[in-house]
# Entry
Amino acid sequence: MDLSKILAISGKPGLYKSLSQSKNGFIVESLADGRRFTAFTSERISALEEISIFTDSEDVSLKEVFKSIWEKKNGQPVLSGHPEPSELKAFFEEILPNYDKERVYVSDMKKVVTWYNTLLDHKLLDFTTEEEKKEEPGTPVVAAEPEPVAGEEKKPAKKPRAKKTAEGTVKKTKTKKEKNE
# Structure
């Protein structure tokens, strides 16, 4: 799961996928409706990978919070609709018991839940490890190219050069290999 390409833009609802970078900002695509536009660098743009949640000891990355939600709810959507603040606080107490109750607001909790559900709907959450992915059946195995034997290096063929003669016509010259043949 790569959260570095998923962006939150201040003042705009929802999440956006970064497609490329332009001169003045980023070309993004809304995950909600697929609409593409330029998000300018003057706007506050945050990659989800950079966001963390305050706790009593140290900050926890959003990816770890999503993983905790995924494990507790078995990969199912959570708190759909408009949950009450008490529901959100109880939910956060369950998934991140040591979150900082003074610095993490209900609006922040609501965003985390909404973002989790959005990413889940678009199948952008994947918490399987690399070993689990390798062990999955049906994964095609691609054979690697054989290593060249010592002394048998393949060199790219040289292209013939063109020479301009005194009369201004172009004359094809032969490479050393062509001359020897």
